[in-house]
């Protein structure tokens, strides 16, 4: 009974923590746009998060591994996020937003990764498919995107802080009830974590998959502005995210049925190719409803590549460094890609428009897909997690 209750609380926590991410990813670019910033300025502001996350995510992961607690690390990040947000949403100048944004994203950057890492460790401990736990994060993302879209269309995007504050407080309250999970009692030293960074197999994988995830993060940052460009409003942006992330939740939920049929890299290649087709089709969209239809493929793209990548990493990263490895993956594949995507996307959107932006994203994802196919041909899984070769 106690185990069931703790699992339920973890699912609720993932629901609310991903709701926080929804509000930032889906509406912060539109919030900045409403304040009068240009696409290039918004791209620069959004690049702060991934830039900070590039260093902070492995740092939080290392602290979590070293002190054997994901829960306390999460609560520390949530507290810092709450305090910094009180200042972020009061700022109106570009310079002030850069400065306070750095502190805000220092804590924000690790929230999703640490929550997913706790879910992964819990799934291993209890023999439950990771997707069945992680799906609740996607459900939270989807429901909040839809509800907040309707709320913001009424109260105005300038009042984004208020729904954000409510969700953060709810997440903190649930966070205190979480149970920690650990899959290794082996002590961790900083030198051990540093070896992950210089591992050739891991570095090559992260570099190649970066091409694909850059297109994903660019879309995260600018899909709301693209929807507005072709005639949508804040309410429609909520529907865009709701459809996309609910499809993601379904893929996570049924991951136990489809995932074991092929090796992880095969699924990663499949999802990467689908990303390419998806962006090319979006580049040709002229009406908002076309984006809504294409959002169904979001779940197949993101959930498949995410689950497969975590499984691939769990095979080559030692148990005692799972949090570090997981957040290292996020810092490169969704952090560095976020920097590139924000700057590249903002410039392209300003200069050429959304259609050209998505056309280029399609070609970039295709390059990544080809790179992964080549990597798959040369890759041979080393036994017993030999990541230090």
From TrEMBL:
Keyword Iron included in the entry's annotation: no
Membrane-spanning residues: 7-30, 42-61, 73-89, 95-114, 135-155, 161-181, 202-219, 239-258, 265-285, 291-313, 325-348, 360-379
Domain Major facilitator superfamily (MFS) profile: 163-389
Entry's Gene Ontology molecular function annotations: lactose binding; lactose:proton symporter activity
GO cellular component, one term: plasma membrane
Membrane topology designation: Multi-pass membrane protein
Keyword Cell membrane recorded: yes
Lineage of the organism: Bacteria, Bacillati, Bacillota, Bacilli, Bacillales
InterPro entries: HcaT-like, MFS_assoc_dom, MFS_dom, MFS_trans_sf
Coiled-coil ranges (or none): none
Localization, UniProt: Cell inner membrane
UniProt keyword terms in alphabetical order: Cell inner membrane, Cell membrane, Membrane, Transmembrane, Transmembrane helix, Transport
Identification of the protein by name: MFS transporter
């Amino acid at each position: 009974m106690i185990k069931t209750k703790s699992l339920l609380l973890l699912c609720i926590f993932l629901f609310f923590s991903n709701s926080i991410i929804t509000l930032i990813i889906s509406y912060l670019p539109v919030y900045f746009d409403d304040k009068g910033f240009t696409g290039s300025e918004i791209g620069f502001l959004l690049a702060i998060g991934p830039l900070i996350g590039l260093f902070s995510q492995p740092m939080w992961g290392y602290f979590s591994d070293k002190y054997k607690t994901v829960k306390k690390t999460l609560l520390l990040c949530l507290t810092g996020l709450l305090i910094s947000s009180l200042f972020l949403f009061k700022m109106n100048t570009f310079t002030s937003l850069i400065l306070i944004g750095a502190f805000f994203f220092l804590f924000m950057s690790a929230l999703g990764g640490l929550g997913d890492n706790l879910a992964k460790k819990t799934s291993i401990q209890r023999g439950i498919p990771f997707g069945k736990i992680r799906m609740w994060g996607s459900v939270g993302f989807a429901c909040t995107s839809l509800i907040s879209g309707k709320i913001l269309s009424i109260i105005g995007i300038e009042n984004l802080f208020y729904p954000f504050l409510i969700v953060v407080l709810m997440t903190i309250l649930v966070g205190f009830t979480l149970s920690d999970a650990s899959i290794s009692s082996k002590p961790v030293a900083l030198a051990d974590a540093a070896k992950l960074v210089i591992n050739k197999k891991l570095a090559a994988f992260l570099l190649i998959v970066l091409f694909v995830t850059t297109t994903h993060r660019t879309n995260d940052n600018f899909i709301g502005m693209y929807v507005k460009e072709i005639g949508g409003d804040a309410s429609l942006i909520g529907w865009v995210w709701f459809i996309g992330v609910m499809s993601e939740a379904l893929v996570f939920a049924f991951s136990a049925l489809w995932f074991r049929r092929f090796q992880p890299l095969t699924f990663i290649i499949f999802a990467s190719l689908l990303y390419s087709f998806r962006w090319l089709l979006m580049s040709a969209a002229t009406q908002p409803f076309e984006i809504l239809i294409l959002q169904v493929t979001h779940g197949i793209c993101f959930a498949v590549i995410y689950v497969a990548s975590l499984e691939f990493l769990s095979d080559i990263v030692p148990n005692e460094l799972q949090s570090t490895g997981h957040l290292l993956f996020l810092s490169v594949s969704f952090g560095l890609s976020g920097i590139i995507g924000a700057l590249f996307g903002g410039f392209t959107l300003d200069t050429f428009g959304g259609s050209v932006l998505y056309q280029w994203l399609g070609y970039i994802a295709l390059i990544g897909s080809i790179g992964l196919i080549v990597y798959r041909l040369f890759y041979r899984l080393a036994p017993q997690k030999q990541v230090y070769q």
